[in-house]
Here is the input.
Amino acid sequence: MLNNLDSTGVIVNDQDIQRPSNPTISVVVPVYRSQDTLRELHRRITAVLETIDPHFELILVEDCGGDNSWNIIEELAKEDRRVRGIQLNRNFGQHAATICGFAHSRGKWIATLDDDLEQVPEYLPNLYKKALEGYDLVYGVYPERTHKSWRNITSHTARWLFSKAIPSLNHAYTSFRMIRGDVARTLPQFDSPFPFVDGYLSWLTNSYTTVEVPHGTRTYGVSNYTFRKLITHTINIFVTFSDLPLKMATWIGIIAFAIGMIWFTIIIGRFFIGGINVSGYASIMAGILLFGGVQLLVLGIFGEYLGRMNFKSSKKPLFMVGYRTWSDHDQ
Here is the structure.
């Protein structure tokens, strides 16, 4: 195969010059502090996808992690024209970065996986083969996870809570996915400031299945998901995708109101039979209990409406692109 110089002076081969205009598969990888894994990730993804169809693209979305990841992405894009790099102008989070990749993808199918090599790229053909059976969405799920014990416990707890609070959620979800392209490219239309890819996908399609895959071991660094980030992410999911907290507030108000009424009745009864001798005690306590319960009840009802208004009124941008490795005329 002949070698040629591209416009940047980098030697590339004829295959690399041909950027696929209609790739069969787009692989979207949100990148955050992954300078040590990017080259191996690129090598393994390209090697396995070439066995499926050489017409693919690899979209690497750098989420402003502050390391050397973006420079490596630019180098990979020069070496392999199938690589498309995007750098966001600030840190928006993994789910926003993933949706940004969806918005810039062109593949009939879109695969997603993490940048830390815990998700084994060599199993992408398994997900693709399963998707071709007629599913819109295929998850790669793990019989066993290699995370630390506290991470596994918090993940199982969160998933159990989600199953109670969000019945429509595809509960066997992971970030190792194969999604029909037109379904995935619908996600940028959601304008919530706290995105959750799998929550959106559960709204868009029920045609999903799972494939068991092994969970790899992290070779470099530690997980970017700290305990605090996991808790924050869990709270965001509850607030954005479930009205369970608001319903809990309403029921707390109802219970407090009922207790207040019972206590109010007891206090008034004791007052009339002479069991209370302190002047003003009965009226003060009854008022506090009665109206405190009423206030919680009203706040819970208001919360129900405000929560629904919040879903509609939030207009913050989901992501903003800072730099790309390609120009508009080079699509």
Notes: The two ends are 24 Å apart (CA to CA). Strands lie at 3-5, 11-13, 25-31, 56-62, 83-88, 109-112, 137-141, 177-180, 208-212, 321-324.
